[in-house]
Amino acid sequence: MATGNKPLLLYTSATPNGHKVSVFLEELKAAYGGPDYDVFGINISTNVQKEPWFIKLNPNGRIPTLVDRSRNNFVVFETAAILLYLQQHYDKENKFGFDPVTQPDDYSVQLQWIFFAHGGVGPMQGQNHHFNRYAPEDIPYAKQRYLDETKRLYGVLEIRLSQDRDWLAGPGRGTYSLADINVFPWIRIHKWAMIEELNEWPNLKAWVERIAARDPVKAGVAVP
Q: Rounded to 5 degrees, what are φ and ψ at 43?
């Protein structure tokens, strides 16, 4: 069903999880000149991602899903797994990550913040979006519960970034890495989470602005 013959094929949608991968792919293109990728846009509101042809690629029926045509059509699903796969195979100079052998502590910190997003900000803000934007019934407790939890997790990021840091992982002031790329798309759409501004978290606000100003990030969040 997908067209094109570029090395990678990305099944995605304009969601935070989708943008994590497209942003990283654009960063790789800017840094290394590739790999290039084709995009198959998925309209998740139509449940096309639950159709049998897609379930064969990703049994969980979710985006994003990556097919690496240059490696015998190897399929990767789950956002963090896709990011780590791309870093392993296409970020040969570790420009966006850390070597687990020579930089084990920095690599561990990067993983901690990646998992923080997938166990914290992502699920909680996702539920925030659901109950405040999409739920078929008004449940005030749920709306407030997930709004408060989203704000708490923004506070966790603020604590980290207030420690004389520009980035979440890496020595000193840190290094822009997958740790940042993996969290940014959620915070970027804070207004959709009923949080109009980030003034309560000044270091987080500055971090968002630093990332959003990058040209590859601008290109990545325009996909698909």
A: -90, 95
